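Action item from last meeting closed. Structure (361 res):
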């Protein structure tokens, strides 16, 4: 078998241990290093002094990231490989043998590198992922608030469409004082525009929905919950500003361009750009990027029989963002996506077209 690299290194990465197998032609040298920055720099110097052409490591949790950053800053070429693509022979499992196996596969060009963006894009992706986690936490807190209101027999969600809106918050803060809302109080709040004028519910219905039985403990819990929501809103706003400041001009331009697609808003566009970047040469066709995102049906056929066509996992952030955009796009009845969705969902189900149709995603 032909050699692709004469000098290369296979690295087995763990939380506190790094095992490196440096191959030079037919000879190899195995060394162990710690996971501290000092020892990673020693590893990088060892590889540079030996003239290493390429290094490869498994994508083990997040332990590969510090090593990849050190190798990248040291000018060494490195690839991160999915563990599923380089399974070793069963029954021969040690750290040294794993490193030797990775080095052997790398030397003969049998490894397929994962897509690792540059440092700036990785940092942008971290910001976007953190914002996404905070938005999810805020949604959980709003669901908890809704459950607490139902427990107090306050039907606020039946009166106000958004319990996180300005009108709902003003009504909640008044109820948490222990007072009730009668007809006269409703008129006063309506005049001061504390209660929005565009609510579809009648005055009598709103008064009935907002008078429940709230215990002192429930009031205290709701106050803490509302304070937490305020904190989350501040953090999310700060992250929005930081993301907008951190994005490069070409990334902002690309983000604005893809917002012309129905269903994609500013937040989703920033998430998409943070994952795929602006250089599309790494994806030969649109089918490749759909497959990488895990949004294409699987291709599994044998003996002229179609087997399971389930989608692969793909990139979690890109996949969930595009699915959310697809759900938003099909709500626009004037768009092509709505027509395509209704055609497919009639025989496949409401969720399946959104998840599997390349047209919608």
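Sequence:
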């Amino acid at each position: 078998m032909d050699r692709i690299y004469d000098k290369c290194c296979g690295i087995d990465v763990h939380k506190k241990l790094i095992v490196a197998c440096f191959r030079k032609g037919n000879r190899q040298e195995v060394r162990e290093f710690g996971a501290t920055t000092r020892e990673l720099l020693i590893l990088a110097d060892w590889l540079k002094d030996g003239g290493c052409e390429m290094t490869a490591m498994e994508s083990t949790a997040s332990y590969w990231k510090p090593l990849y950053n050190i190798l990248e800053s040291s000018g060494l070429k490195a690839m991160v490989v999915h563990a599923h693509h380089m399974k070793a022979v069963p029954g021969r499992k040690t750290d040294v043998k794993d490193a030797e196996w990775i080095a052997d596969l790398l030397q003969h060009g049998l490894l397929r590198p994962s897509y690792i963006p540059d440092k700036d894009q990785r940092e942008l992706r971290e910001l976007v992922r953190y914002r996404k986690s905070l938005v999810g936490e805020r949604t959980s807190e709003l669901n908890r608030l809704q459950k607490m209101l139902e427990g107090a027999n306050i039907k606020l969600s039946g009166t106000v469409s958004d319990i996180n809106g300005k009108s709902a918050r003003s009504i909640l803060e008044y109820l948490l004082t222990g007072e009730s809302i009668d007809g006269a109080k409703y008129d006063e709040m309506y005049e001061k525009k504390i209660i929005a004028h565009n609510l579809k519910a009648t005055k009598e219905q709103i008064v009935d929905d907002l008078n429940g039985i709230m215990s002192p403990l429930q009031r205290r819990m709701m106050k803490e919950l509302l304070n937490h929501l305020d904190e989350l809103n501040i953090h999310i706003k700060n992250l929005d500003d930081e993301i907008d400041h951190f994005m490069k001009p070409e990334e902002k331009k690309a983000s604005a361009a893809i917002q012309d697609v129905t269903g994609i808003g500013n937040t989703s566009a920033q998430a998409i750009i943070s994952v795929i970047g602006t250089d599309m040469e790494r994806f030969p066709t649109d089918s490749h990027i759909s497959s990488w995102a895990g949004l294409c049906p699987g291709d599994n056929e044998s003996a002229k029989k179609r087997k399971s066509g389930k989608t692969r996992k793909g990139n979690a952030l890109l996949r969930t963002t595009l699915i959310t955009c697809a759900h938003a796009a099909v709500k626009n009845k004037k768009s092509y996506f709505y027509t395509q969705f209704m055609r497919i969902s009639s025989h496949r189900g409401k969720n399946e077209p959104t998840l599997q149709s390349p047209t919608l995603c």
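Note appended to the action item: Strands lie at 7-13, 17-24, 27-34, 54-58, 78-81, 301-302, 305-306.
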